[in-house]
Amino acid sequence: MRKLSIFTVTLITIIAFNLFYIPRAIAQINLTQINQNIHEPSKLFEINCAGCHLNGGNIIRRGKNLKLKALQKNSYDTPESIATIITNGKNNMSAYGDRLSKQQINDLSNYILNQAKNNWK
Ligand code: HEC
């Protein structure tokens, strides 16, 4: 009986892990492949960032948005600091270092700063 329950628990754990992990892995591979062919920063933003940062907002942490005032307040007002958060992620924002090239991350950083200066118009 005890053996059976350990077996069951192990099996459920494996199934649960795969249910969680496989779709995530597929999504990540797809995103990497899609990104490879895209060089336009506004398109990269649309695909990778707009889900949380539509029009420069932030649906998860409202104060940590991409408007110039917030970027200045949170010290993300240089291309270098923006590139760092894109590459490494932070808290609920995932890292993009393995999904975007260095060039794409640099272009995106400049794009965000320019958009912020234009008030995301
Ligand atoms: C799943 C939602 C999500 C996605 C997708 C996402 N972010 Fe974020 N982003 C966040 C969260 C949450 C924070 C706040 C992190 C913190 O400081 O705790 C954040 C913070 C930032 C900041 C700092 C803003 C500030 O005022 O402090 C920048 C810049 C940024 N993200 C850029 C991007 C870029 C560029 C992309 C796409 C490559 C992206 N984010 C994708 C959720 C996301």
TrEMBL record:
PROSITE patterns: CYTC. InterPro entries: Cyt_c-like_dom, Cyt_c-like_dom_sf, Cyt_C6, Cyt_C_IC. Pfam families: Cytochrome_CBB3. Residues 36-116 form the Cytochrome c domain. Keywords: Electron transport, Heme, Iron, Metal-binding, Photosynthesis, Thylakoid, Transport. It comes from the Bacteria. It is found in: Cellular thylakoid lumen. Its main location: other. Belongs to the cytochrome c family. PetJ subfamily. This is C-type cytochrome. The lineage of its organism: Bacteria, Bacillati, Cyanobacteriota, Cyanophyceae, Oscillatoriophycideae.
